[in-house]
Amino acid sequence: MKKYFYIILCIAALLTSCDKWPENGDLDGQWQLTELTPEGGATQNVRSKGIYWNVQLNLLVIHTTHETLNGKTFDTSVLFEHKGSVLRLTALYIHEFTNDELVTDPNTTAFEWTGVYGNQAEFHIERLDADRMVLVSDRVKLKFRKLG
Length: 148
Prior knowledge:
This protein is mainly beta. It has a single domain, classed as Lipocalin (Beta Barrel). The chain contains one helix and ten strands, in the order αββββββββββ. It has an eight-stranded antiparallel barrel. The termini are far apart.
């Protein structure tokens, strides 16, 4: 009997220690920005620009592969809140090697090509499932495909 108890205990420990539970449901994972439509503007296919939003726990990291953000690095760390059909970006930090610099300018245009206008943003989640996400704000509509 003890033998079966130890086997079950070991299996349970393996299952619970290998990965974190997705805190944000389908939002967790890596998303590639594929289309960006500014309000009143034409839809832009941005897949080739290499813009990725990576979501895990309470952190979103915007990563670009071809162009630096704000002339400094390829990564911006973003604190966010996800409640129901609302995704609110509350603070943006330019990621640098030794520290992260808080973006304090509410009128910054440095992140517009990644879908973020200013240093905070609020999006309505129009679609969110295991493969696709569509975010809409008063300034832009963003379409993503999930990579992982």
